[in-house]
Amino acid sequence: MSQAFPGQALLLMAHGSRDADARNEYRRIHAVLVERLAPTPVVFSVLEFPGDDGLPSIVDGWKQCLDAGARRIVALPFFLFPAGHVREDLPAELRAAREAGGWASLDLLPPIGAADELLTALETRADDAAGDGASGKTAVILVGAGTSDPDANGDLCKAARLFWERSGDRYPQVEAAWVSLTRPSVPDVIERCVRLGADRIVAVPYFLNTGVLLKRIDNRLVEAREAYPGIPITRGEHIGLHPSLLDLLERRARDGFEDRIATAGLIPICSRPSCAAVADGRAALLREGEPVG
């Protein structure tokens, strides 16, 4: 049994999906965290499409935390980027939950971001998809869902650069593409890779869970294979239940329980060590008092 955090609970908050496979992944992630964090209560809630299949709304999830005895709730967004849902919808849902379900102290953690564990998962997915045929001319495309939020789109570009910093010796070309709402699209980036001399292309979905958009990526890759029959184009698995992601979620939860994330109201949203150092430095300066004497 792991360390107990009496009076606390973890409330995961995902976007939600009608897709049965995506909902099953949510439940499987929940089951893993329940086991790892026991006896601390863990509830997995969804912003959209709640149901009676173990995926409650955020308001109902909050109530479940209270029913389990929580006086402090650590809310962890199961989102990659700090886009509109994370910035606006989740705080609004948590306020509504407090009003409807009852009061508890609350710490809303940052979204997952391009943490080292997530980059490890992406590398594994790329390596598995590239197989033994990878060469010095293999290109990797990180494929995001796409959003109208420029900061979130920029975060995918940052993740692609961080991926290259770790694996540029194996994958000298790492690009970012999106499925919808913005550009460059997957076909645009595949054409770019071909023009730059790639002899193999691996598309890795920058997705936490499966769903409709993954199938859309597959359709784009079918078209690309027809357009470039001499170049192997494969798709890696999405992040899913990769052990590194599960480790990251557990670490974030424990950091939240032990109050190691908040720094005088300033949280490093990007989740990278450099941003955390800036937040810690500011907090330290704010804590310093005027010298006496």
Q: Give the N-to-C terminal Cα separation.
A: 52 Å
- The CATH architecture classification of the largest domain is 3-Layer(aba) Sandwich
Overall number of structural domains: 2
CA-based gyration radius = 21 Å
Low-confidence stretches: none
Summarize the model shown.
This protein folds into 2 domains: 152 residues, 3-Layer(aba) Sandwich (Rossmann fold); 120 residues, Rossmann fold (3-Layer(aba) Sandwich).
Description:
Helix 2 (58-67) packs across helix 3 and helix 4 runs antiparallel to helix 8 (243-257). The protein has helices at 20-37, 58-67, 84-101, 116-130, 150-167, 186-195, 212-227, 243-257, 273-287, and strands at residues 8-14, 42-46, 72-77, 105-108, 138-144, 173-178, 200-205, 233-235. By secondary structure, it is an alpha/beta fold. It has 2 domains: 8-113 and 242-287, Rossmann fold, CATH 3.40.50; 116-235, 3-Layer(aba) Sandwich (Rossmann fold), CATH 3.40.50. The chain has a 4-stranded parallel β-sheet, sandwiched between helices. 46% of the residues lie in helices and 15% in strands. The chain is built from 9 helices and 8 strands.
